[in-house]
């Protein structure tokens, strides 16, 4: 019932999005700063690529303007590429042109008026995959029983990150370039990415810190009306309740100011 009266932020992605609920993760921090204003729905799916994400998203994202008692997705983050960039023969691998097509399709599902999932009130942010620390990743895979071969490369992942930026520019959708943000924070040294990745692929608390700050800055710059400081709580603060006759003052209200 709470979700029916409170709009949401939806996080669509792979294990790096799923891990956003971990202590220090970005989803956990979003839920805190947007408390009583927007709920956070984490649809991070460990191991998924864009090919597998599309049919899942079709089920998760209702047609916003036709469904009753369905909250409006106000912010949608789409964070893929880490698995698409896996090298053959990995079943997660998605060729770069297909990755670009899939990412474009996910955006069109929300932004195209002819789409069954059209949602004009949803603001999208694309997020690039982080860089891979192949030294860490190789050590992690070699430590497994049985050992596994390195499944990702630094340069291939860079190309997928660049593709996300290009899709955002072409479709006029804001992009959070996590690849560049983390690589710059590591002094543009692949080995020093171990400060931000716990296994060469997934973000640790420090990595999520960089990502979270970038995400909040993107919202503030590109969608300022959706920044948590600009939103009203759905239910009135306790000091605004009319204590003698509280019913009217306790009705849910729209937290986002419509144009």
From TrEMBL:
<protein>
    <recommendedName>
        <fullName>SGNH hydrolase-type esterase domain-containing protein</fullName>
    </recommendedName>
</protein>
<feature type="domain" description="SGNH hydrolase-type esterase">
    <location>
        <begin position="11"/>
        <end position="210"/>
    </location>
</feature>
<dbReference type="Pfam" id="PF13472">
    <property type="entry name" value="Lipase_GDSL_2"/>
</dbReference>
<dbReference type="InterPro" id="IPR045136">
    <property type="entry name" value="Iah1-like"/>
</dbReference>
<dbReference type="InterPro" id="IPR036514">
    <property type="entry name" value="SGNH_hydro_sf"/>
</dbReference>
<dbReference type="InterPro" id="IPR013830">
    <property type="entry name" value="SGNH_hydro"/>
</dbReference>
